[in-house]
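Protein modeling request. Please complete all fields; requests missing the sequence field cannot be processed.
Requester role: graduate student
Desired output: 3D structure, token encoding
Chains: 1
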Amino acid sequence: EVQLQASGGGLVQFGGSLRLSCEFSGFTSRDYTIGWFRQAPGKEREGVSCLSNADGATYYPDTVKGRFTISRDNAKSRIYLQMNGLKPEDTAVYYCAAHDWGGSVVHGCGEFEWWGKGTQVTVSS
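Delivered output (125 residues):
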């Protein structure tokens, strides 16, 4: 059973930075995609970053490109999301998520199959 546990959210001022961490376990193959999506009240779920474990490719939508960076430490079974230049519109609950459908992340993360409990990120103006 895949398990994902996110941490690191909090309250930060406009322009500030936060680093989210996700501890993962339970993958039975190396061909999985892991990343983050966010959900704000009244808004659609938005994938904000993902990483293909098979080839290390990453994906970012235009809304966060250049500000957010995903990284991994497989030895620690963790991924991270470094968020810089935060804006009030980044306020949301952030979820660590994954799937093992395979495929490229060049054009997007794909439909996540598993996600853990979210962590709140609040950016004040």
